[in-house]
Each structure stands twice: as structure tokens, then as C-alpha cells.
Amino acid sequence: MKRYHVTTFGCQMNVHDSERIKGLLESLGLGEAGSADDADFLVFNTCTIREKADDRLVAHLMDARAAKRRDPDKVIVVGGCWSESMKDELFDQFPFVDLAFGPGNIHRLGDYIQAGGEIPRGHFSTFDTFSGELPLKRDRDFQAWMQISTGCNCNCAYCIVPSVRGREHSRHPGGLIREAERLAGDGVRELTLLGQNVNSYGRDLRPAVDTSFAALLRGLDAVHGIDRIRFTSPHPKDMRADVIEAMAECEAVCEQLHLPVQSGSTRILKAMRRTYSRERYLALVERIREAIPDVALTTDIIVGFPGETDADFADTLSLVDEVGYDHAFTFVYSARRGTEAARMPDQVPDEVRGDRIERLVERIQHHATARNAALVGTVQEVLVEGPSRTDPSVLRGRTRGGKALNFTGTALAGALVDVTVTGSTSQTLSGRQAAPVAAA
Ligand code: 5AD
Ligand code: SF4
After folding, report:
1. Angle, nearest 10°, between helix axes 278-291 and 310-323?
2. Which pLDDT tens digit goes with each residue over 392-425?
3. CA-to-CA distance for 253 and 251, rounded, in angstroms?
4. What are phi and psi of 169, to 5 degrees?
5. Average of per-residue pLDDT across 361-376
6. pTM for the whole thing?
């Protein structure tokens, strides 16, 4: 039996695409290798969001080239966003690559194998199919991702994603509900909806199909067996009242929201083409907290966008203080080829960017610590993932707010249990399983 190994870079969308890649390979009779060394097919599912992602990948490709020199029968496959961004020069620069395709073209790998390696390798045929119809290999029985849309219609000045993932296409709501029912039938309790911009879902289907993100949430909430629904990432501009209402009213939709802000300065937000101001974002957060009081809020922030002054950065810090995020992903701005921001004057020097990210991370940590500490003494519903990887004597799971919680108890993986929180750090909670309440 031929064996494969998939190395995944980048976001959850890529992790999910890798589940499709693995499912496809297994449906064609390949088995998963324990390591890249043992594999006949070396697959790299790539990311290109920041320059660091590119650099890391190139190092991996050089290892693959060395492996292929030792064993010329190894097949090297490069999929995903970096592959797409490099399509004009990939085979010139990396001639040892056998097959390359973009994020929308996983089926190309199936075509290649079925044709015994005899397809023109330079042909990408981007965005022509939806890989959601491919088989899937999931890691956990009780959690699943569901890709509700592909692509992105935003014009964020820093972002390379629209050019590699194409225009937005929503999947039909009926198909999504059926998929959720099927997953629930297989034992899935928690669904995470994925999209480059989840809450603009459905706009491209209207008026032929009468749907919206809020309607989809309500439809999925009604699926028997799905106890938890999360989604990532929504865009603040599409976070309308109907979505907030659906979140508040749907029992399965978790009290958690990842709401990328990117900057706290209205001037920078404008240059980024985010289409909202600092004030509108803050007002939105207030409405969300009114509707869902204990919501856990997380965000993405970029420092050092071209033209960002000390005053702009101070606005970002003060926004972080005003919101008090549960957690945030922080990024140093990285110029990406072909984006509007890469051509802007006033690129911020490295040392300034380094200094700003340090100060930002410190502030984020401060709030994360405080938000977690406030949960000590409360009882949280936890979906058990199994024994903790670092200490097998305790169990690990996640709260509805998405926080990792290590606790003492006896529950099995996949169970929903109540846990009393007894301790916290900026990263995790700890606790003990609460005694079940006897029926009256
Ligand atoms: N430089 C730095 N960070 C970026 N992101 C997207 N593009 C860039 C870039 N060019 C960040 C944004 C986005 C997250 C996934 O990555 O914060 O929300
Ligand atoms: Fe995900 Fe963006 Fe990286 Fe593509 S470029 S894998 S969409 S983070």
C-alpha cells in the first residue's frame, strides 16, 4: 500500500482542507504514514498569510527535496494558498515538485493519482469546484468543521486571501443542514462553521435562495444532537442585529465570538479598508454584550500597518483596554505581494513594529488573565476531549466560551459535563468535575 503524509500550515480552513485531502487519498487506497520519512506521497498544504509562513514552508520543501534525492519515487505535492500565489513560478523555482494546486482544487490530487501521475503538472484550474463534496477524515468523533463558504469579497488592503481563494461562494443551506444531520448521526456534538467571512454567508445566493447567516444558525440549532455551534471568522461589518439575535436565542450557539478588529485607530482602519470605525466597532461590542452578557470575545490585531503612528498604536492599546478581550491573536504587519498595502508609503521600521507587538501582547495577556480569573468559582459546561496531553491524570476539555479547562473527574471523551473552576492562568482554566445534581 502506498502511504501519504500531509503537513498543514495556516488557518483552520487549511486544517479542514487537509481532512479532505486525507479523506480523498484514503478513498483511493492510500494509508497514512507515521512520519514524512515513511511516506510515498509528501503533501504540503500551504499558507501565505505572512512572510514567515512562506519562509517556514520553503525550509520544509528543501527537506522534501533531500528526501526525494534519496528516494526518487517519492511524490511531492504542494496545495493551498502559497501554492496558488506562486503558480506562475512554482515549477521553475521548485522543479522537484510533482503536483501543485490551489486551495479550491484538492480534486486535482485525485485526478493525478487516478491518471498514474500522467497529468500536466503546471495546470491549476483554480476555483472550479467545491471540495466540500469530497470524502473526509476527521480527528475527533464528536467535533467537526463545516465549510459554509469559500473565498472572500472584502478588499482589506493588507490581505492576500482574496487573490488566492477567489470570490465568495456560499454553499446551499439545504445541503449544509443535511450535512449537519449526517454528522450528528455519526456522533458529532460540536460544529465549527468555517468561512473567510462567515457572516456574509448567503448573500451571493440571494434572491434565488432566501437565506442568511442568521437563518443558517437557526437551522443548524434545530438539528437534533448538535449541542454546540461555533463559527470563524465573522467580519464586524456584517455583524447585523439578526445575527446577534440568533446567537442569543439559539441554545447550541456558544457564548463565544472571534471578532477581528485589526486596529483601534479609525484612520488606520480606513486605510485598511475595513469599512468600520473604532466607534462603530465599540458600539457593536456593546450591543453584543447586552444580548449575550457572558460572551467570550477574541480578536485579531495587526501592528505596524503602513503609516501607523504612535498615536494610532495608542488607539489600539486603548481599544484593547475598553473591550477587555478574552484572548487575541497579534500579528506584525507583513507586506504581501500584489496587495494594496504593499505599495503604500511609510512602511513602519522593524524595530518599531517589534516594540509595538511586545507592548500589545503584554496588554492582551493582562486582560486574558483577568477574564479567566473572573471565572474562578463558576460552574462551566465542558465538552471533554480526553486526558490532558501534558498530565494524563487530569481531563481536558473546552467551555462554551472556548476556553481550555483541565480538571479532575471521570468523564469520557465526547461527554458534556459541569466543572467547577478552581484556578486560572492567562491561557487555561483548571477545576474539578461537579457532582451531578440528583433528579428531584
Ligand atoms: N500581515 C500581518 N497580519 C495579517 N493578517 C492578514 N494579513 C496580514 C498581513 N499581511 C492577519 C489578520 C487576519 C489574520 C488571519 O491574519 O489579522 O485577521
Ligand atoms: Fe488560511 Fe489565509 Fe493561510 Fe490561506 S493564506 S491558509 S486562508 S490563513
Report:
1. 10
2. 999 999 999 999 999 999 999 999 999 999 999 9
3. 6
4. -130, 125
5. 98
6. 0.94
Which ligand ends up closest to the CA of 104? Answer: 2
Ligand 2 proximity of 152 Cβ (cutoff 6 Å) = no
> From CA 200, how far away is CA 167, in angstroms rounded?
12
Per the CB < 8 A criterion, the answer to whether 240 and 275 are in contact is no
Task: Please state which architecture CATH assigns to domain 3-123.
Answer: 3-Layer(aba) Sandwich (3.40)
> Confidence class of residue 140 from pLDDT cuts 50, 70 and 90?
confident
Place of cell 497529468: 119
Looking at the domain that runs over 379-433, which CATH code has it been given?
2.40.50.110
DSSP 262: B
Distance 240 CA to ligand 1 centre (A): 23
DSSP, res 1: -
Do the domains spanning 3-123 and 138-373 agree at the CATH topology level? no
Amino acid identity of residue 4, one-letter, is Y
Q: Specify the 3-state DSSP secondary structure of 199.
A: helix
Grid cell 489600539 in the structure block, residue: 316
Instruction: Round to whole Å and give the CA distance between 129 and 104.
Output: 6
Give residue limits of the domains in the chain: 3-123, 138-373, 379-433
Helices (H) and strands (E) in the chain, counts: 13, 18
Work out the pLDDT band at 45, boundaries 50, 70, 90: very high
**Which residue from 13, 50, 197, 300 has its CB within 8 A of the most atoms of ligand 2, so it is best to mutate?**
13
Among 106-110, 116-120, 157-161, 240-244, name the one with the lowest average pLDDT.
Answer: 116-120
CB-based burial label for 261 (10 Å; 0-12, 13-18, 19+): buried
Fold of 138-373: pyruvate-formate lyase- activating enzyme (3.80.30)
